[in-house]
Design brief:
With 71 residues, the protein is mainly β. The chain has no helices and seven strands.
């Protein structure tokens, strides 16, 4: 699922996104988070059901975030 700045989140403010899928057992190994195609470290976010919460807001200048659930 792709999230777009100004539509789905506000850079520098938003620190959580809700996606359309739930990771199996909320296991990070089944989730891939990318800012503009750059894979984000699993240490920089957490997953609970369908919500990805970042340790700090999505940075200013990031125009899209892609979250994939791997099954």
């Amino acid at each position: 699922q792709i999230f777009t700045t100004g539509v789905d989140y506000t850079p520098g403010v938003t620190n959580a996104l809700v996606h359309g899928f739930t990771a199996p057992g909320a296991d990070k190994d089944f989730v891939k988070v990318m800012f503009e195609g750059v894979l984000q470290s699993q240490n920089s976010w957490s997953v609970a059901a369908a919500t990805i919460t970042f340790t700090s807001p999505i940075p200013v200048g990031v125009d899209f975030v892609e979250i994939s659930i791997l099954a």
